[in-house]
Design goal:
about 160 residues, 4 helices, about 25% strand, binds adenosine-5'-triphosphate, binds magnesium ion
Length: about 160
C-alpha cells in the first residue's frame, strides 16, 4: 500500500518535451502540485513554459529565479516557483498559500523546500544526456499515480 509509481520518458528534442508537458497539462486539476529537479539548464523552466501553454496561460512565462514566485492568470492559475535561492533556508511560509492553493503549483528545485511539501505531488527529474536529449523521470503516488498512468499513455511510452 502507498507505493509510488515511476515512469521514464525519453526526450530527444524540444518537441518531445512539449509533447510530454502537454500530456501532463491534460491531467491537471485545482491544487495540482508539480516538483521539478535537474541541473542548471536541464529544462525545468522550458517544461513549465510548455505546460503553461497547454493549461491555457496566455502570458509569457519566464524564470522566477529572482522573485521566487510568479502568478499567472488562466482557466487554472499557474503558481510558478523557483526556490533555488532557498537552498540554505529550507522554507518560505509565504509560498504556503500557493503550494496549497487552487491553481497549479510548479516548483523548480523542490528538494530545497522538501519540508513544506505534501506527501503526494508529481515529482519530475530531468537528466541531461546531451544538448537536446533528456531523460525525464516522473514519480507519484495516490491521485498522481493515476495521472502518471494517463501521462504515460498519452505520451506513448
Ligand atoms: N529537450 C529539451 N528539453 C528542455 N530544454 C531543452 C531541450 N533541448 C534543449 N533545451 C534547451 O535547454 C535550455 C533549458 O533551460 P531552462 O531555463 O529551461 O533550464 P532550467 O532547468 O530551468 O535552469 P535553471 O536551473 O537555471 O532554472 C533551454 O535553452 C532549452 O531551449
Ligand atoms: Mg529555471
Amino acid at each position: 500500500m502507498g507505493g509510488k509509481m515511476k515512469k521514464r520518458f525519453i526526450i530527444n528534442n524540444l518537441n518531445d518535451m512539449e509533447l510530454l508537458a502537454k500530456s501532463v497539462a491534460e491531467t491537471v486539476k485545482p491544487g495540482y502540485i508539480i516538483g521539478l529537479k535537474g541541473t542548471l539548464g536541464s529544462g525545468k523552466t522550458t517544461f513549465t513554459q510548455f505546460l503553461a501553454k497547454y493549461i491555457g496561460i496566455k502570458d509569457n512565462v519566464n524564470s522566477p529565479t529572482f522573485t521566487i514566485l510568479k502568478v499567472y492568470k488562466g482557466p487554472l492559475p499557474l503558481y510558478h516557483m523557483d526556490v533555488y535561492r532557498l537552498e540554505n533556508i529550507g522554507y518560505d511560509y509565504e509560498l504556503d498559500d500557493f503550494i496549497y492553493g487552487d491553481g497549479v503549483a510548479v516548483i523548480e528545485w523542490y528538494p530545497y523546500i522538501q519540508s513544506m511539501l505534501p506527501n503526494e505531488f508529481l515529482e519530475i527529474t530531468i537528466d541531461v544526456i546531451n544538448e537536446d536529449n533528456r531523460i525525464v523521470t516522473m514519480e507519484g503516488s495516490g491521485s498522481y499515480e493515476i495521472a502518471l498512468e494517463t501521462i504515460s499513455n498519452r505520451y506513448g511510452n
